[in-house]
Fold this protein.
Amino acid sequence: MRKFLPVLRTCPLFAEVAEDDLLRMLQCLGARIESFDKKYTILAEGNPARYIGVVLSGSVQVVRIDYYGNRSILTEVGQSDVFGEAFACAEVQSMPVTVIANEPCEIMLLECSHILHTCQSNCGFHQKLIFNLMKDLATKTLLFHQKIEITSKRSTREKLMTYLMFQAKKAGSSRFEIPFDRQELADYLEVDRSGLSAEISKLRKEGVIESEKNTFALL
Amino acid sequence: MRKFLPVLRTCPLFAEVAEDDLLRMLQCLGARIESFDKKYTILAEGNPARYIGVVLSGSVQVVRIDYYGNRSILTEVGQSDVFGEAFACAEVQSMPVTVIANEPCEIMLLECSHILHTCQSNCGFHQKLIFNLMKDLATKTLLFHQKIEITSKRSTREKLMTYLMFQAKKAGSSRFEIPFDRQELADYLEVDRSGLSAEISKLRKEGVIESEKNTFALL
DNA sequence: ACAAGTATGTTGAAATTTCAACAGATGGAG
DNA sequence: CTCCATCTGTTGAAATTTCAACATACTTGT
């Protein structure tokens, strides 16, 4: 656990928690750390939503797969970020999504009930954690607004361009990398992969963007 | 203010706040109540995100209008529910959406900074409000997941059916009313209105649904 | 270096959506 | 009751997306 302190201190969930308190707190929260190989399912749709996951290393994807096997990618969650918190905090009976390791990763799982319901020893950190959770959920809501703004566009081209503009803004540069391969990008934008590839080629020919693999540039 | 106590007590934001404390608390939060006519803009895109709105009567819509004038409806917010909280809590500089009165309504506006940052008098209710906000944001996140599940479907028919199934589940009955007219439903599902009308007709002819105005039934 | 598996780009056909235009239905105001 | 504005449903044409199939490029493990 101790070796992850540098990551944990950058985790917004633990913002303003004194380092001394952190380890004790995690103990109290029933924290446990697990490693997952790429593509491994960390939290499965349908299971009870008890855990908040903290990405210590690597990254995970929150996805939903429908009857027909179509995958929809909701978010990509990277190091020191958190997943599953909305379902655990809302205390839903079953997870509506699946969380999958996007690469080999180390994950810390917290029992959310231990955060929500003050323990007997009445640890002082609950209030701070709840505040941090609130902040985190507000931020996540913004990300969903973003995703909806992107996918509400009616054409593949507009979805792609809107996505790329958000990424450029986030990177603070007109040249940037995206965290998705083509199929994943299609599953995030909710469009057909081959159509997406065609659109990227077209935009490139028109001189609107440059791209090579996962690196894009807006011109 | 006092006349709204019955509504305020059912508002999840004030759950477990003693009625005696409520009025004092609202005072401390700089609460003010305003009335709006139908279609009036309550919070405008681009403005600073300082306020949490509480719907005391009537209902409002959270919408985004893009360059081309295409409207996208994000959510409909009814009595005793809250809006704007995600932006205010995340302390974004400017609102990414617009909130519009869906019908004549009475709205209570709270200064979010007064909730987030404990006041000098160190009122005891901050912790409770923050907990309630956290719960609310978690629930709102679920609603966004739902909206994304709906709009991620590739055809108008599937979007509509997925939406109707959620509504049926919510109503606890296969017959239910929806809060949208045709154009609004199209703007929520992110599809073309005329195509939506055509699809509804088709589903009716096929005997999959019954519908008249805003009342639908799944068969 | 090779083979096998995966990812990407390309294409054309089929299905679907969007768009524009209009007609009938509905609802309010006077 | 009538008029006017709005809403809803219908249609056909144009644009777009999806789908399936395939060729090429890239990766990975051996």
Q: What stands out?
A: Chain A has a mean pLDDT of 94. Residues 154-156, 191-192, 194-195 of chain A lie near DNA strand D (CB under 10 Å from a C1'). Residues 153-218 of chain A form a domain with the Arc Repressor Mutant, subunit A fold (CATH 1.10.10.10).
